[in-house]
Design brief:
Number of strands: 17
Order of helices and strands: EEEEEEEEEEEEHEEEEEHHHH
Distance between the termini: 47 Å
Shape: elongated
Length: about 325
């Protein structure tokens, strides 16, 4: 009876071989299970990748953890009283996994972890959570380096629900990495938001400039889009290409210059995401994010749990 309430039940601890990986690489480690005060029937052991996200809905805004990848690393087995069992694992990081750090420094606003679920028959399930960092691919790093060389400074990063038009996107959300502009653009641009959508064959790069205009400081959004293979990206002159896009901001209106001639931000029916950047109307990221991520939103873990798991995040960012 006590076991049904979790008293004296088995415990679980997941140990990662390395708490850092890049999209497309493997996370490896082992799940260590310790038997409790009674024999227990374990139904399965599952691992999931979770990240923090804000979800806007009619009642307001909710912050929590969303699981975007899940794999089962063990089927059913019996765990004897006090028995130790080790289950090795490896699983691939999704190509579209959001980046959490750049050059060894965590991006403000991003957290990621591996969540372990130990399902125990006729008892309370046990779990574990371990922080993990996702570093950029070499192809992504080349673009990030170009923004830094142009004088941009990292502001923050977040995740948005929705799908981008014309992009082969697998996850129901995308990441926005936000930059402050350098002094030479401070009178023209409020900020630039950068999105990567990676796959095995290459990378979609989408940028949005929140462009200042008008006598009263109103703003419009101008977009740029590039496609490249992972092999070619480190050898392209991104400083020149991004500079060309920025220089075109004064020449083109809202919607602006996007290499390839196709606007990936045409509104996809099925709803409108209001966003939290104040774009409003049908412009900006809000105008292109389609609804349909309710299934992921249903997987939220309370914000209090996020703070408890990643309680040292503020220290790291400092």
């Amino acid at each position: 009876m006590l076991g049904a309430f979790g008293v004296g039940a088995p415990s679980v601890d997941t140990v990662l071989a390395a708490p850092r990986a890049r999209p497309g690489e493997f996370l490896r480690g082992e799940v260590r299970v310790k038997g409790g005060d009674f024999d227990a029937d374990i139904e399965y052991i599952a691992l999931g990748l979770v990240t923090r996200m804000e979800s806007e809905h009619g009642e307001g805004e909710q912050t929590g953890l969303v699981e975007f990848f899940r794999t089962q690393v063990s089927g059913p087995f019996q765990l004897r009283t006090g028995e130790d069992k080790v289950v090795p694992f490896q699983f691939p990081v999704p190509w579209e996994a959001p980046v959490t750090e750049v050059t060894g420094r965590r991006l403000h606003g991003m957290v990621m972890g591996v969540r372990t679920e130990l399902a125990i028959a006729k008892a309370v399930d046990k779990g574990d959570m371990d922080p993990v960092e996702i570093a950029p691919l070499a192809s992504q790093q080349a673009v990030l380096d170009a923004f830094v060389r142009l004088g941009f400074h990292f502001k923050s990063a977040d995740l948005e629900y929705g799908h981008l038009h014309g992009v082969n996107q697998q996850l129901p959300f995308y990441q926005e990495i936000e930059f402050y502009p350098p002094p030479q653009y401070s009178g023209q641009i409020n900020e630039v938001e950068l999105t990567f959508v990676a796959g095995p064959a290459g990378l979609d790069i989408i940028a949005e400039a929140d462009k200042r205009s008008g006598r009263y400081g109103s703003s419009t959004d101008t977009f740029g889009r590039w496609q490249t293979s992972h092999d070619q990206a480190p050898h392209r002159d991104w400083v020149s290409e991004i500079n060309t896009w920025l220089a075109a901001l004064s020449q083109y209106g809202s919607g602006g210059f996007h290499p390839g001639g196709h606007d990936p931000y045409a509104h996809q029916g099925g709803g409108h995401h209001g966003g939290h950047h104040g774009h409003g109307g049908g412009s900006g990221w809000g105008g292109v994010a389609a609804a349909g991520a309710a299934g992921v939103a249903g997987g939220f873990v309370a914000a209090e749990v996020v703070d408890e798991i990643f309680e040292d995040e503020g220290e790291d960012e400092g």
